[in-house]
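Below is a filled-in request sheet from our internal design queue. Each sheet records the structural input a requester submitted and the sequence that came back. We keep these sheets so that new team members can see what a complete request looks like end to end.

REQUESTER: design group, bay 2
PRIORITY: normal
MODE: inverse folding
CHAIN LENGTH: 194
BACKBONE (tokenized):
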């Protein structure tokens, strides 16, 4: 009688564990090694995503504390405030913020333009602005709430916004802006005779 290795009716097979190395792969064969690269790839991708989230979060926080893009676009705000078309429609600009979704929509027609939401003393509007290399307005379009678009002429600026006085002259008078903290500091120094 011949004995086949996989005979299910073999009386000696009843006591063998089917998961022992002798049955699965033969004697002395170790179990197959687990692949390490999927775990390493998952760790690297996870750390990359985490570092990107931290970096973007820190940048967003820093920009919000410093004043955000409002500081960067201050020359644009000043130029728009000097344009008579803008002051006729919305008055003097009190606040200005970049509108990302409208900038994307405007990029279909004018790829170099940035759209700002303007809040003025007498109304609100949007302005599509092409910023020049000097940080000022190169081209601009005023977009009213009803959708009307008015081309703005950057060369036609009135002097309605006063220029900042030159503080480097060394001449101080009553019209020179003095910070409240500096004044308090001088008073403290004079009282301590420093």
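RETURNED SEQUENCE:
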């Amino acid at each position: 009688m011949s004995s086949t290795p996989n005979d299910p009716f073999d009386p000696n097979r009843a006591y063998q564990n089917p998961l022992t190395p002798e049955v699965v792969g033969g004697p002395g064969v170790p179990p197959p090694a687990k692949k390490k690269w999927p775990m390493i790839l998952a760790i690297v991708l996870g750390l990359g995503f985490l570092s990107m989230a931290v970096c973007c979060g820190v940048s967003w926080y820093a920009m919000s504390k410093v004043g955000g893009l409002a500081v960067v676009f201050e020359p644009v705000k000043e130029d728009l405030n000097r344009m008579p078309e803008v002051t006729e429609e919305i008055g003097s600009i009190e606040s200005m913020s970049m509108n990302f979704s409208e900038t994307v929509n405007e990029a279909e027609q004018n790829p170099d333009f940035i759209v700002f939401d303007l809040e003025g003393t007498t109304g609100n509007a949007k302005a599509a602005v092409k910023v020049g290399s000097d940080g000022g307005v190169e081209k601009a379009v005023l977009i009213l709430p009803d959708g009307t678009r008015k081309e703005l002429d950057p060369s036609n600026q009135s002097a309605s916004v006063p220029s900042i006085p030159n503080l480097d002259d060394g001449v101080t008078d009553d019209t020179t802006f003095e910070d409240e903290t500096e004044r308090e500091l001088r008073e403290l120094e004079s009282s301590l005779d420093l």
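SHEET NOTES:
- DSSP finds seven helices and five strands in the chain.
- Strands lie at 93-98, 114-120, 124-131, 137-143, 149-152.
FILED BY: M.R.
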